[in-house]
Every structure is written in C-alpha cells, then in structure tokens.
Amino acid sequence: MFFHCLFGGRRQRGCGQPAAQAGAQPLSECCGCRRVRVCRINGDRNACGRMASLGVLPGAVLEPLCHGRRRQCMVKVNGGTLSIDELTAASIFVEPA
Amino acid sequence: MNDKSFHIALAGNPNAGKTTLFNHLTGSRQHVGNYPGVTVEKKEGLCTHREQRLRVVDLPGTYSLTAYSVEELVARDYLVNERPEVVVNIVDAVNLERNLYLTCQFLELGVPLVIALNMVDAAEKRGISINTAELSRLLGVPVLPIVARSGRGVPELLDTVLAVSQEKDHPPTLLRYGSDIDLALRDLVPLLEEGRLLTALYPARWIALKMLENDEQIISQVMRADATLGRQLISRSESLTQHLRNTLDAYPEAVIADHRYGFIKSILRQGVVARTFDEDRLYASDRIDKVVTHRLLGPLIMAAILFALYSFTFNWSSFFVELLAGLFEAFGGAMQTLLPDGPLKSMLIAGVIDGAGGVLGFVPIIMFMFFGIAVLEDSGYLARVAFMMDRIFHFFGLHGSSVMPFIISGGIAGGCAVPGVFAARTLRSPKERMATLLTVPFMNCGAKLPVLTLIIGAFFAEHQAGYMVLATLFTWLTALLAAKFLRLTVLKGESTPFVMELPPYRFPTVRGLLTHTWERTWQYMKKAATVILGISILLWAMMTYPGLPADKAGEFAALRQQAAQNVKDIDQLEAEAKLRHSAAGRIGIALEPVSRWAGFDWRTNIALVGGFAAKEVILSTLGTAYSLGETDPNDAAPLKERLKTDPRWTPAAALAFLVFVMFYAPCFVTAVAIAKESGSWKWAAFSIGFNTLVAFTLAVLIFQAGLLFR
Q1: Distance between CA atoms of residues B311 and B468, nearest Å
Q2: What is chain A's alpha carbon radius of gyration, rounded to the nearest angstrom?
Q3: Is the pLDDT of residue B49 over 60?
Q4: The pLDDT of residue B309 is above 90
C-alpha cells in the first residue's frame, strides 16, 4: 500500500519535507470526506515513526469520523479509532481513496 | 504444590484488557479504565494454576517496542531485563490488525509468547469470526480465545502458558522488509555479532532493526558499549536513511511499519478472519461518536452529563446523608449522657465525633459521585472528553495527554491529585509535563468535595447541582489560566502533538461499577478512620493544651462567681480564650492580619493550615474549632448550622473560603508526589507557593467585592 501511494501519482514528499503535493490536502481539511489515503506525513522523525506504528503511514486508508471541516480529527484506521490533534492532522496529507 | 513459581508478563496494546485479566488471575482490584494509559507502571500479583504458583506482572499498554513513550520503555526494559518465562500478549479480537503489530515485534524479539485473543464475544457480536488454529499456525505461537471479563478460556490459557514455559528454544521470527532494509540488516547483524554488542540482551537482528528505526535508547546503549563500532553502525544506518529519503522519500521506520502491516494483512487474508457484516459498516460506537463528539452538540452533551452527574449525586444521596448525620448525633448524645465530664469526653465528642465523624458523614455523597464517575469511565465516555478538551488544552499550552491527569485529579469532582500527578508521566515534553504537574492539584479532589458540599449546602442550598457545575467550570478555567501563565513564563516552549486511540463504547458491568465505587469509597473511609482521626485528635489536643495558667483560670472563676447571671457569656469568652491560647490558636491568630483580607478569622486559619496535611482535615478542624468555641463544647449544633448563623460567615466570605480551599497549596502527599515526579523539591515548593498565591488573590478579590456590594 505504501508503494501504491508513492508511485500511483506524482512523486510525493515525505516526513520532514515542507513542499506540498498537488492534489493532496491536510487531513484537518478533509474531515467530511468518506475515505482518504495518506500520501505523506510532515513532521519530525519521531512523530512520523509513532504515527507509522499506529498504522498512519503513506498508503494507509483512513476513514474520518468527524463532521465537516474541523481542526482536530477522529479517524478509523486498521479497525481502531484514533483521535488526532490539530497540529498532527495538519501535517498528514491525504487524497480521496 | 510446586515450590518454584513461574514468572509471566501480560503485555499488549492499551485497552486490550491486560489489567482485567490481571485482576481475574490474581484476584486483586487494580484500577481498570476504558481509556488508554491507566497502567503507567507495572503491577505484580500471584495466582495458582494446577498447583503451580505463577507470578503475574501487568505491563503498561504499548503500541510498539520502539522507545516512543514511557510505557514502551517500561514494557521493553522489563521484558529484556527480567526475562519472564512466558509473555502473554493480550490481543483485542475486535481490533486484530492494530494489535498484531506489537505481536510482530514480540516475535522478532524472540520472547516465549502465548497470544490471548481477548473479547472474542465482542468480536462475535460484530460478526467477526477468527480461526485461532490457523492464526496460531501462521504466527508459530499458541493463540487462545478468551473473555477476560468473565474468565472464559482463561484456564485453557494458563494450561498453555505452563506448557510453553517448559519449552527451551524460542527463535526470533524473521520478517522481510524489502531489499534495501534487508541488505542493511545483512551488513549490520554480523558487525553486532562479531563485536558482541548487546547481543547478550537482544537478538542481533532486533538491535539492527531498532538502530534503523532510530531508537534513541538503543543507539545510546550501543554507543556506551562500543563507541567505535557504534559509529560504524550509525554510519551504515544513516546511509540507508539517506537512500530511502532519496528514492522513496520516507524514513526507514515508515517502510518497516508498512512491511509489518503487510505481513499482518497477508496472515489475516489466509482464512484467519471471516466477517458476517460489511467491513465498512459503522458500528454503534462510531455512530455514538458522531453525535457525542460533534463540534456543537458535544460540549452541550458534556455539560448536560456533568449536571446530571451532580444532580444524581445530591438528590440520591441526601437521604443517606441525613441518616448518617442522625446516627452521629445519636452517638454524640449517648457519649454526652454516659461519660463523665473531663478531657476524655471532650476528646471523644469534639475531636472524634465532630472531627472524623464530620468527614465520614459525607461518605454517601462520595459513594454516589464515584459510582457516577465509574459509569462514565467504564463506558469509554471519559476518553471522548479528552478528545473534545484537547484543542482547548493546546490553546492553554498543555497537551491532550494532560486531560486524563486533570480528570483523575478531580476534573469531575471526586478524584485524587496523587494518581493524577503520576498519570502525567505519559507526557513526553518535560515542560508540558511540568505545567500539568503544577496545575492538577487545582482540581476538586475527593477531599475537597465535603468542603464544597458543606459551603454550597449552607449558603447556596437552592441550586446545589448548578453551583457544583459552576465550581467545576471555575476550577478548570483557573487551572488552564495558571497553565497558560506558567507556559508563557517559567515553562516556555513549543507544543507537542497528541494522538490517542479511542476505546469503543462498552456497557459497564455491575461488578466493575460496584468494585470501582467501593475501592474509592473504602480508600476515603480508611483515610477518615486513620489519618484524619489521628489529625483530628492531634488538633483537638493542640487547641486544648497548654491549658490556661492557674491565675488566668482563677480570674475567670472569680468572674463567674461575681456575675452568675452572665455565666453563659463568660464561659464563651473562656472557651475562646483557651482556644486562642492554644498552639493552634496562636498560629491562627498570627495569620489573621493577612487572612482577614480574604475574610478568614483565626479559627478558619487553623482549619486551612491543617488542610495542608490532608484536605479532609479542613472540615474536621473547622468542626472542632467551632465546637471548642461554643459555650458547651459537648452540645454543639452541626457545623453547617453554626456557620450559617455566624455573622462573620457572609455569602461572600463563604465563597472566598470555598475558592481558597479549591485552589490553595496541594496536600502534603501530592506535594511529595510532585517532588518525586519532577525530581526536585523546588517544584513542590513552587507548587505550594504558586497555588496558595493564586488562591489567596482570588479569595481576596471575592471577599472585597462582596464588601463593596453588601
């Protein structure tokens, strides 16, 4: 799934890379979407590693549970529900799955 | 009975049911909460199975074995250093994919493993059926379905644990991570093996993996053991990182996690999991979340739940409170009749019944409040409160993980600051952690609850539940403002991210609710019967001795003889003079020039000083102080009535007192906990000084405003 997201479209930027990818939006802007696929995660290496261990890594499909656009997010991933704060949600870039 | 006891460790994701299984096995009553992070430290207990003694250790919940959090470090260090004979990995059957991620790491570490597939009943209800035999075959370790809450499958689990403990060899499982990482591992592993670098503790391949995952603890261990070889290993690890960044634009840990999840998916798709319902279906838990965490509805529901909790507490407990008050009154009356006048009678009535009895009289309120909190906690709602409060906490410079310490400390009145201080361990940022440590004592712990209910009951009786909600909101606001102040001044620094797994909603069990209610109420009663009773008697003695000198007493006796018609007034003066002359009275009087700005007289000061030992003492000391100030100390009206009829206790003075009690110095035990957790007495002293200053400022403002509007 990782490679699908990486090579499925244009070249992606990953953890620690500031440039945004065309078409990908921060998760914090996608709370109303049904299902989204993670394209990249910005942030420090530890934060990216922690997110990866929770199943939030490039290629993973997330199901936002919150209504409309809000800064913090609640998503379903790998059968569990994660609450993600505003700071982190803004650093996870996703596209419709 | 076999004398040798086997050592087993319970490990798994947060909220997978480790503590529930631990309680079931050991018969203990460790606290179980339906939110992550209940177990921060390991807990130990004993059980016997087929005449074999088992030493069971409950480890904190973790998602991985990489050092991302304190819990992960505690769990990993324990497994490596203590070497349990069997590790029981508790896996939530409803959330198999996420839980097996940790299992993969246990397999790679090569620990003797048994998987306890917990909550299979909940999985069945969700239409998930798991082929445990196939899962066991594919993972290469035994998998046993259990329901920890009811004990279903636990005897079979223990049979398997005993069987696995007899096995000698547990080779680590080798997962493939793609050509780049596998190549790096092939370079690193021989270097580690040849240099015997930590290989006595961990498998070489596991150390290499952790180095590639940039595990700071393992890297520093390696550097300490052999800096030259360590630099060589780090250099190879960095070249891989650079290569992956250039080609895949990812760090090695993301690629490693992806392969682990890929491995899990491949296993689950080989006939392990069958679903009756559509995989995409929203379960009841998700549907409830859509409503209760709604941006607008969520806070309204939260306020309504809080109000309902307080209404339930006050309405349903009032009958029992009155019953208990009647019992204490009758007991006091019996003592009055049966005992001869003297110090023993005074001590029993003024010290024991008015002091500790006054605190015990609140047991029904405490019990009902704890029951309500247990319902919210066990159902999973408190975790949603944390989610909703997270954004607000960030604004005030705290972390989402600070919400739980706040709630545990009495965010919903009735907690305790000591476990709240310990719960702040889950915070990684030292500054956010320190800000949390210093502000959790502001919360309304169970010890402050009687003071709140007494003052609200005496002066604002018509809207008790409403005032309790206001007091709770005011507490939060003050704590958050104090946190913001600290984060802008002495604890400046960046905010760190907050990600938490939300447990599914569950119906609390009657047994669980009653256990939680009883264990907390029992702790309160034990404290009242031991520490508070002791302090009440000590304070009674301090307020009674040294007695008046003979010449002073003689003067009063002469006065009594001269003015028989005013004997009642003279007795009153004498009692007050005695109290003023006592050690406690002198402390109270010394503080009065300052405290009178907030409306506190010297008797109130005695109670507040005593409250530093334990907040419950405030009420008992106030009871004793007012009892000893009465004409007849053994025929005293209830404290509530005495305060209501005392002209010095105006509503403004009562409110100022209430606010001071809510926010002033944490009790001694909490101060010790803060010193222990922060590693310095300086922070404990800061907490005492800072909180008292905040509390006194607020109390002065309220009292002085009350004087203006009188």
Answers
A1: 9
A2: 12
A3: yes
A4: no
Residues B126 and B61 in one domain: yes
Domain membership flag for residue B445: yes
Rg of chain B, C-alpha, whole Å = 30
Q: Say yes or no to pLDDT of B552 above 90.
A: no
Same domain for B383 and B472, yes or no, is: yes
Higher local confidence (pLDDT), B255 or B513 = B255
Smallest CA–CA separation between A94 and chain B, in Å?
16
Q: According to the model, what pLDDT value does residue B627 have?
A: 67
Q: B146 with B189, same domain?
A: no
Between B177 and B679, where is the model more confident? B177
All structural domains of chain A with their residue ranges: 2-12+23-96
Q: What is the pLDDT of residue B567?
A: 63
Nearest by Cα to B444 from B322, B644, B616, B643: B616
Domain housing B335: 297-488
The pLDDT value given to residue A17: 43
Residues of A in contact with B249 (CB under 8 A): 6, 11-14, 17, 40
CATH number at residue B135: 3.40.50.300
Q: Which residue of B has its CA nearest to A2?
A: B258
pLDDT for the residue A11: 38
Chain B residue numbers with beta carbons less than 8 Å from the beta carbon of A51 are: 499
B306 and B380 assigned to the same domain: yes
Please, which residues have CB within 8 angstroms of residue A4's CB and are 6 or more apart in sequence? A59
Query: What are the residues whose beta carbons fall under 8 Å from the beta carbon of B497, sequence distance 6 or more?
Result: A43, A47, A85, A87, A88, A91
Total domains in chain B come to 3
- Residue B577 within any structural domain of the chain: no
Tens digit of pLDDT for each residue in B609-654? 888 877 877 887 887 777 655 544 444 456 777 788 888 888 899 9
pLDDT at B398 over 50: yes
The answer to whether the Cβ–Cβ distance between B387 and A74 falls below 8 Å is yes
Assess whether pLDDT exceeds 60 at residue A18: no
Residue B707 lies in a domain: no
Question: SS3 for A80?
Answer: strand
pLDDT of amino acid B688: 93
Q: Which of B488, B506, B540 is the last residue of a domain?
A: B488
Contact A78 B95 (CB under 8 A): yes
Residues B199 and B105 in one domain: no
User: Which of B263, B387, B392 is best to mutate for the A interface (most A CBs within 10 A)?
Assistant: B387
Give contacts of A 15-74 with B, CB under 8 A: 15-17, 40-41, 43, 45-60, 63, 65-68, 70-72, 74
Determine, yes or no, domain membership for B304. yes
Residue A87 and residue B394 in contact, taking contact as beta carbons nearer than 8 Å: yes
Does one domain contain both B108 and B243?
no
Residue given tokens 């999991």 in the structure block: B273
Task: Report the pLDDT value the prediction gives residue B208, as an integer from 0 to 100.
Answer: 95
| pLDDT score for B160 | 95
Q: Report the residue from B245, B253, B498 with minimal CB separation from A52.
A: B253
Report the CATH architecture of A2-12+23-96: Roll (2.30)
Contacts of B255 in chain A (CB under 8 A): 2
Together in a domain, B136 and B48: yes
Q: What is the ipTM of this complex?
A: 0.81
The beta-carbon neighbor of B391 closest among A2, A81, A86 is A86
Closest CA to B73 of B83, B81, B65: B65
At B420, list the tokens: 């709240």
